[in-house]
Amino acid sequence: MNTIHKIIGTWALPLLVVSGVLLAGCQNGQQIGSSDDAASKVYVAPGEHDEFYGFFSGGYNGQLGIYGLPSGRHLFTVPVFSQAPVNGYGYSEETKAMLNTSHGFVPWGDAHHPELSQTNGETDGRWIFINENNTPRVARIGLDDFKTQEIIEIPNSAGNHASPFVTPNTEYISAATRFSIPMDDKDMQNMDVPIDSYKENFRGTLSFIKVSDKGKMNIDFQILMPGFDYDLSHAGKGPSDGWSFFTSYNSEEANTLLEINASKNDKDFIAAVNWKKAAEYVKQGKGTMMPGEHVRNYIDHEEGGIAKSETIEEVRVLDPRKLDGLVYFLPTPKSPHGVDVDPSGKYIVAGGKLSTVIPVHSFAKMKKAIENEEFEGEVMGVPVLNYDSILYGEVENPGLGPLHTEFDGKGNAYTTAFISSEIVKWDIEKTEVVDRINTYYSPGHLMIPGGDSQKPDGKYLVALNKITKDRYLPTGPEMFHSAQLIDISGEKMKLLLDFPTEGEPHYAQGIAAEKVIENQKRFYKLEDNGHPDAITSEKQARVERDGNEVHIYMTAIRSHFTPDNIEGVKVGDEVYFHITNLEQDWDVPHGFAIKGANNAELLIMPGETLSFKWEPQKEGVFPFYCTDFCSALHQEMQGYVRVSPKGSDVEIAYGTGQ
Amino acid sequence: MASVLFVGCGGSGNGDQASDQSSQENENGLSSFEQKNGIGPVTEKLDLGEIDKELAKKGQNMFETKCSACHKMDERYVGPQLRNTTEERTPEYVMNMILNPAEMVKKHPEAKKKLAEFMTPMPNQNLSQEEARSIVEFLRYMNKNQDVDEI
Question: What span, in angstroms and rounded, lies between the C-alpha atoms of A627 and B120?
């Protein structure tokens, strides 16, 4: 009894203190909870569907989480940059290559910003892109089968944070270095130099990835930049289409204790890149082909569904010191984080983490200042525009630590304030705060479906909070991040729902469900299965030995494997199970696992073929079975492999039902 | 209750079945057409004619990929043996069973019986109506040629 009391006591005390402080900060006590009719607004009846898909980055889990909105229900997780034992992604022979890089196989990634493809400035439901921050990469996920279809590495980069933001017709997606690294002017290679030679040797790059009609990505060009930290980005739209904007901090070019040393300047910069001009330069063959080894991995279910990797050795680099009109710096207070372009394309909003105002730059004024050469300096060939010449206005009293802004398409902007833990709604034209709401606690990004496009669906807003603390039942020191759904359909924002999210969703994107539903694949057609090791009937099932490799061509259907009795495997063999799921119906995957395998399971979708590598270490008989409950006789879906000693004369034999 | 269900089912068989159907509905709520020919997209009697060997061959290929993992001709396997199916069932019933298995095992008394016997519900292999028709032809051929295992 005593112990229980003690435990409750230690938990309860800090909770009371926390809520007390927060209550004091609220306008009224009710905001701690949600509004009265909230339950009906987020209730999606059994069998009904959500109105929006929400795509939430998994942060340090490296994956992409899919949530329904407004219910906040977790619908699915798409494995992207991390191996996923849940279905064998990154473990199966078919998908391993998706995680290849110029550093070899990298089993984990840090996924930050999902970004939906767009057509005419509107989300179109074809693909979603997402960046990997640690080993710079960008992935493309097909929204027809919710699978990662392509991953491209970004060369000459580190900390791929300002990524991947699309242009209005998905012509390009951008990617920039958060961490500058030493780069030789001659060959761009990372150098073995003293770290305190930062100012002399370190550089950044802004990369533009071209996306083909079918989605194929290739790095069209990189722009060499001063050694700042490039943080976030958004493309222009409407009148500003053809430009992209990148925030930077650490214009001090510090290489140690950045929290102090990179916070000294009153203003850092937004880099405004004229990507249409850059694309013209590229067409004219300008710039220099530089070493830039990077790996591109892709998988196509119409071509057998086996991931392939290719290494690309070079990349075209544009140098603003040599090519005019490519990049301009917009001075922006103070260590800006997010940069967001409103739906009209007229305004560029920066979230200066340490700033007391939200600066709003005018694109028209920026163009004029460029024409009139209203420059206040130059850094590494990049003209710095005069702050007063480009500023449209400053939003006063925007909360402490403004980070990110999205838009409702009705003339309002919504900005997260991390330190004061609130979302501030402000009128774009008037640059005036009109409403504010507390969040629990400390929002990073926020998301309105279509909220960074030209056509936002201004009904809901999701705050992606960085701190969870007491919002849910405690789960020890580590807990899921907290997202909060806020109704923005009226004049006042209303808190509707808390829901936990997996990993650390940095950013999210949302899209009306009907744009995605119509293209859904429900199974892969067997007749289109182009996998070289696929078999499309039990007649073709067989076991073949090739030296010490044993290939088992197997089928799975409710509720048996063929063959399910296999003999003649020996210790020291490399055994490959090539399993085709013969089902042709929605939601009938079969799983596969075998005792003691140093591998994850396979989860094989209907009509798909996947391969499992097993190196038996011991003699004996090893059971395998279906891991995904598939029918009333699922428990019977099992088989045996007999493993004999190395050098024994047990012949290959196999069968089912004999 | 039964008559309400009957109206809702909308089984619109015509030809030789039409008079049967309008005069009868049974306790399952199925029309007599459905009772004989199953529930699904095939709602009219088919005119089969002579066995079309080319079509039967197509059906054989389809059968091998989509069906043979569970059905054999002459032995009970995961599902029933099929050598004499076309004698026991109408072609329309066979097609509806292929095309609409989930509803069949829920509502049709014969299909329900089979499910109780075999326990594994027949999966929907998403065949087109033409593909299901070719399998009927294959089964007719196999029924007529009792000794052969393939065409």
Answer: 17
